[in-house]
Protein 1
Amino acid sequence: DAGVIQSPRHEVTEMGQEVTLRCKPISGHDYLFWYRQTMMRGLELLIYFNNNVPIDDSGMPEDRFSAKMPNASFSTLKIQPSEPRDSAVYFCASSGPLGETYGYTFGSGTRLTVV
Amino acid sequence: GEDVEQSLFLSVREGDSSVINCTYTDSSSTYLYWYKQEPGAGLQLLTYIFSNMDMKQDQRLTVLLNKKDKHLSLRIADTQTGDSAIYFCAESFSGGYQKVTFGIGTKLQVIP
């Protein structure tokens, strides 16, 4: 398996623009997580899905953030409109049932810069 | 509540042993993990230990768990410059899914 695949690796956008981050989880994993990492706040859980259904989005900072998982192999995190304070590294991670998998497998992240 | 605490920074000389410490608050955790994050990369699972174990060894890595004190440590023997990274301690809980709570990460600097 190629692991968790995120795209793009880097994104630079202007304030006010829409940004879409993409993630392909490991095949067979039924949980998908979106995290944001900054120097100030560390690793923050934004939202997670189970079997494509959003379970907990309490970490999503504002209504400007939305996430979808239309099928088991694809998820998006959208920011509209983007703001400079959204600049961070966004990680997607996936996992399967405990005992079959241990911990989460992370993608390489998308480094977002909003100018 | 769930809380995982780690020191922010550790500096060691190449060839020495590194010990990264972590404390957690929830005694119901089932697994404890150590992740490594190299610059520009995602978190990579290094090793994990089940909560009913005291120690786990994997090549240069030794994990010690003191469940009474809720203390977890990662020892890296013969530390190399390639070990320079951020190390995250994490715990997970049973019940529904693997809810993993991460610490803030310890930056390990290896001095040649």
Note: Chain A touches chain B at residues 4, 31, 42-43, 50, 91, 93, 95, 97-98, 101-109 (CB under 8 Å).
Protein 2
Amino acid sequence: ETGVTQTPRHLVMGMTNKKSLKCEQHLGHNAMYWYKQSAKKPLELMFVYNFKEQTENNSVPSRFSPECPNSSHLFLHLHTLQPEDSALYLCASSQDRTSGSDTQYFGPGTRLTVL
Amino acid sequence: GEDVEQSLFLSVREGDSSVINCTYTDSSSTYLYWYKQEPGAGLQLLTYIFSNMDMKQDQRLTVLLNKKDKHLSLRIADTQTGDSAIYFCAERSPDEKLTFGTGTRLTIIP
């Protein structure tokens, strides 16, 4: 068990749907991340939150909207997605993004399929 | 920009040692990591090495770092069927960015 949980584990949605992915960490960490894992491509960092403040948005389309209400929870709100957005979405957390020895721990991911 | 490269596939006979290799381009990397991803699961941190070290051993795992050549390897001794997974190398830059390789799929031959 990693201490980082994600729900749902699988999600199928149409292009006009609105859905949300949830991530929760039980490690007392202060930084949380969203990554996208597509087949045969390196992991792509999408968003970073450190102490509830968004510190990175790596040119992610606005159809993905993150929310971090507190240090333990992270959401990814999805709307009007495209089929190419189908991927495994991984959440990660770490103690403190700015710490020299910071290490990220990952959740199991949400397998998203956009029809 | 940073780039991390790995071979896509590796097949090893059960009981043999597996060596998974990784090269990276950012000479200012602070930490380098190995993650394991089993089917249907997220990434599990296996081990990491600070950039001023050249070796780290943890039970069956040995990490070797050649900083001059920007080459990182993970050796798994006595490979078991449970070691079948995709192994990701990642390097951390001074601005805390983590860059992952595409992963190496390790297949164990009985």
Note: The mean pLDDT of chain B is 92.
